[in-house]
């Protein structure tokens, strides 16, 4: 049972995948696009990943504001969720992603990754945190 984790942004999508047992999340890649409205190649790459890893569900980061309100990024994420569900026929779970970028930045700082190089990894690492938080929640829920 593999689960795909996505951090959907205006120019990139960070991608993470769970191990077959659904215990840990690993970063896979960052899918980049030239313009926000251009999603065809992004969706095509996600299709390839789903097929390669036999993904059964998708966890999509949901970018709520810190005061728990929903802004325009949430609307765009909802639209992306609906696109993914129609295209893949897989369940897509929205997962609160607040603080994941901050956590990713802190982890990279701790690892000594230079500030100018962090942008290269932050979306993939944020996807890992989104997916790992979901996996941890599901494991606690089973207890």
Q: Please, could you describe this protein's structure?
A:
- This protein is an alpha/beta fold and 143 residues long.
- The protein has a single domain (2-142), classed as Nucleotidyltransferase, domain 5 (2-Layer Sandwich), CATH 3.30.420.140.
- Helices cover 47% and strands 24% of the residues.
- The protein has helices at 40-53, 72-88, 100-110, 115-118, 122-142, and strands spanning 2-8, 12-18, 25-32, 55-62, 92-96.
- The protein has a 5-stranded mixed sheet, sandwiched between helices.
- It is globular.
Quick description:
This protein has 143 residues and is of the alpha/beta class. 47% of the residues lie in helices and 24% in strands.
Number of helices: 5
CATH class placement? Alpha Beta
Helix content: 40-55%
| Averaged pLDDT | 87
The CATH topology assignment is Nucleotidyltransferase, domain 5
DSSP E strands, number? 5
Level-2 CATH architecture = 2-Layer Sandwich
Describe the strand arrangement of the main beta sheet, using strand numbers. Answer: 3-2-1-4-5
Structural class: alpha/beta
The biggest beta sheet is recorded as: 5 strands, mixed
Order of helices and strands: EEEHEHEHHH
Give the C-alpha Rg: 14 Å
Portion of residues in beta strands equals 15-25%
Low-confidence stretches: none
CATH homology superfamily name = YqgF/RNase H-like domain
Domain tally: 1
The shape is: globular
Cα distance spanning the termini? 19 Å
Any key phrases for this structure?
single chain; 143 residues; alpha/beta; Nucleotidyltransferase, domain 5; five-stranded mixed sheet
